[in-house]
Structures are given as C-alpha cells and as structure tokens.
Amino acid sequence: MDEAKWLKKKEKALRESNKELLFESCKKLAEIYKEDGKYELSLSYFKKAQDLCEKTVDVAVMNRWIGEVYCDMEMFHDAIKYQKKHLELSTQEGNKVEIQRALATLGRTYFIQGLSYTTNKERTSSLQNSYDYYLKSEETCDLLGGISSFDLAVMKARLYLNIGLTLEALGTTDESISYLSKAITISKSNDLKSELVQCYTRLAEVYLKQQKHSEALATIQKCIRFINTQSELNTYCELLLLKCDVHVDMFDFVSAKVDSVRAYKLKHLNSMNRKDAEKHLRLIIVLINNENKLMELNIDDNQEKNQVEQAQVLLDYGTKH
C-alpha cells in the first residue's frame, strides 16, 4: 500500500517538476524497499534522492542510508566508504547529532563485518574498529546540545549495549558485562522497555556462553517479570527458548522440555518464532529419547559410544542453533 502511494506521489512530482516531493518520494520508496530486502531498488532510489539534495546535511544523511543498505547486503567495504563520507560531511557541517550517528553506524558496520570473518586477525581488527567508533560516539553524546534527557538516555543505553556486545565478541567478558549492566541501569531508570529487554537478553546470552547458568536463568527471569506475557508473546517465546538453551547446556532436559512446550503452546507467534519453537521441541524430545536409551544400555554395550556421540552432536544446538 505504501509503495503504491509513494510511486503515485513520485509520478506527480515528476509531472509538476516538484523537486521537494520527488526527493521525499524517492527517499520513502528507498526505505520501503530496504525494509522489504529489495536492496538494489533501495540503492537506486536512495541515490536518486541524494542527487536531489541541496543541503550538505541531507547529502550526508543519504550517504548514511546508502551505507546501511550496503551493510544489509554484506558489502562492507562499500558500506564503510559511504558511512565515512557521512561522517566527513557531518563534521564539515559541525552537526554533532549526525556526527554521533555516523560514529555509531560505523561501529555497527564494523561489528557485523567482524562477526562475518573466519580468521581471527580480520575478526579482531574489525571488532576493535567497532569498539573505537562506539567509544567516540559515546564521547560525542556528552557534547550534544538541544536534545532531551530522554533522547540522550536512549542513545547511551543503546551505545552501552553495543559496546558490551563488541567487548564480548572480543573476549573481554568482564568489561562486556559491566557495559551491559550500565545499559540496564539507564534503561530501567528511564523506562526504556525495548532497550531493557534487549539488554537482559544479551546479558543472559553472555552468561550462557560463560556457562554461568544460574546468572543466565536469573537474568531471563528478571526480563520475563518485566514484560507482559499475555500480550508480548513473541518476546516471551524468545525468552522461553533462551531459557531452554540454558537448561540444555546444563543437561537438564526435563526443564528444557517444560520451557519448549510453553513456547510451543503460545498462540499468535510470528513465523520465525513459531518455527524456532517447533525446532526446539523436536530436538528436546530427541535428546530425552537418547538419554533414556543410554540409561538402558549396559556399560559394555557397543552401541553406547554411538549414542553418546549422537547426543553430543545434538547438544551443540544449544549454542549454535
């Protein structure tokens, strides 16, 4: 519906030589196509919008959008080129809000790039760049004027979350937990519900990777108490499945089954969560069946080794599914 509306507006703008409406139409269409994963179309319209810009700050913003599309396409070198242009133009204009945004965007792109690498050297280099840009973005937050304390809290909560995730990927776990805890504190004190749920979830995942199971479960429970389990069903499902992962990592398949059954029984889930809940439940049933078979085997039974190996392969889903 939105696509058809903005295509009509674009045609109207062309007929009437309305440059302002043409710019807005191209920008909106580019955003719609980006959201739909139609990246080539999105790039085409963002570049058309960029050609229509008269103000430097608008050109800067279009560079950011183009960079984000390239990042979605995993074309990281192109993404970084455009995002650095965004930073350069924003700095040239002295626009601190756009400078902060440019630094944070570069931090995100380097983070995603780092996770895509298979070699430690490239991965570490990109993640370190991500960390450096996020820190510069945080420093810029303190220089911003003319924004509300609420908006500043949102910026800082998201930055601390992202810095925490970057540090965790770099293997600096204690510092990661410290930043995630800071993000939680800011989110709670400013009633930032979406950010708080993300922070609790990521912190629980960090604890799970460390095999700090009690801390992971406690963090998940805090998050579950914070949400409305009757209306926020997709979030509740994701938390139950994360809880299931923790129990699998503890070899507590009975508790894992309870979690996965609860998630499976939830109604009105989106397609991704519905599929994930079904997958979890199927795997838990297989794990329980394997465990029962192992208990029936004699210690000298030649099948034991194969059963153990099968169970270990399936258990990998707890951290790799």
Give the C-alpha Rg.
24 Å
The secondary structure category is: mainly alpha
Number of strands: 0
Fraction of helical residues? over 70%
Number of helices: 16
- Run of helices and strands: HHHHHHHHHHHHHHHH
Mean pLDDT level: 91
* Low-confidence parts: 317-321
Shape: globular
Largest sheet descriptor:
none
N-C termini distance:
36 Å
User: What oligomeric assembly is this protein in?
Assistant: single chain
Strand content: under 5%
Provide a descriptive summary of the structure in words.
The protein is an all-alpha fold and 321 residues long. It has helices spanning 2-16, 19-35, 39-52, 56-72, 76-93, 96-116, 120-141, 149-169, 173-189, 193-209, 213-226, 233-249, 253-265, 271-296, 303-315, 317-320. It has 16 helices and no strands. 39% of the residues are buried.
Topology overview:
Elements: H1 2-16, H2 19-35, H3 39-52, H4 56-72, H5 76-93, H6 96-116, H7 120-141, H8 149-169, H9 173-189, H10 193-209, H11 213-226, H12 233-249, H13 253-265, H14 271-296, H15 303-315, H16 317-320
Helix pairs in contact: 1-2, 2-3, 3-4, 4-5, 4-6, 5-6, 6-7, 6-8, 7-8, 8-9, 8-10, 9-10, 10-11, 10-12, 11-12, 12-13, 12-14, 13-14, 14-15
Can I get a quick summary?
It is found in: Nucleus. With about 325 residues, this protein is mainly α.
Notable traits:
321 residues, globular, single chain, mainly alpha
